[in-house]
Amino acid sequence: MNDIATTAGYTAIQDGRALRITLTNPKRKNAIDYDTMAALGATVRAASADPAIRVIVVTGEGGDFCTGADLSAADEYTARGVTNEMILAAANGMVQSLVEAPIPVIARVKGSAAGIGVAIALAADLTYLSEDAYLLLAFINIGLMPDGGAAALVAAAGGRALAAEMALLGQRLPARKALEHHLIAGVHPDAELDATVEAAVAKLAHGPRRALELTKRTLAVAALASFGAVLAAERAGQCELLDSPDFAEGVAAMLGKRKAVFAE
Predict the structure, then answer these.
(1) Which SUPFAM superfamilies does this UniProt record tie to the protein (predicted)?
(2) Strand (E) or helix (H) holding 58
């Protein structure tokens, strides 16, 4: 195995023809910060240009996939001059790198995939969940909107009604429901999840690279033709909301473990 990248937020290891990316912030359920998003996107783009890499696998360390953006880093961002626009650009670039990668991407999801974690999971071409896993777009609960293309990725597979339900109500979608709505490729017991992922890795790693690339590109045209426009709209909307009193109240309520009281 060849260690491609090791940071505070993730590792990327080349294992034969596979690049295995693991989010490594288990104490915060693999919440992801600005530096990790920017670096991870660069790692995926580099892997996409490497003919020796034929498939990418993304997962999370421990019992969760990714619980979204790491809000605890807000003060650090301010001190460093990292703006909301920069954070959203990094998030969009990371997810777009997965969607546009010319090689197949597999997501192995256990536990929670929330916020930008949903976008990472559904940006993959094949998304496999454990039976205890769930998807959650909880942005509305703290006065925000989905970003990273999450709403578009849900709508592309499950339809506008499901995307609206997840985005507007901010409730968990259990793994089995996600499968019923065709959001993911499969749900498996823990004992079978890894075997399913590895079987897909083995097949794709030795598949016809150019045929896989053109197939993936065509599927993206069919289902995600407006993805760039969605990312731009999300970025503009989220930047506005991040400066709003409702977001400040939402975060205060979350940290205080109370119900948010938004403006009338």
Answers:
(1) ClpP/crotonase
(2) strand 55-60
- Where the chain has pLDDT below 50, the residues are none
User: Whole-model pTM above 0.90?
Assistant: yes
Q: Give the pair of three-digit tokens for residue 193.
A: 């999840």
Domain residue ranges in the chain: 2-190
Check if the beta carbon of residue 10 is closer than 8 Å to that of residue 21. yes
Question: Which element (helix H / strand E) includes 237?
Answer: helix 227-242
pLDDT at 58: 98
CATH of the domain spanning 2-190, picked from 2.10.25.10, 3.40.50.2300, 3.40.50.1010, 3.90.226.10: 3.90.226.10
Triad 209, 178, 214: Cα angle to 5°: 15
Dist. CA 41–CA 93, nearest whole Å: 6
Q: Sheet containing 173-174: which strands, arranged edge to edge? A: 112-114, 134-136, 173-174
CA separation for the pair 187, 29 (Å, rounded) = 20
Show the tokens assigned to 144: 């925000």
Q: Give me the amino acid identity at 66.
A: C
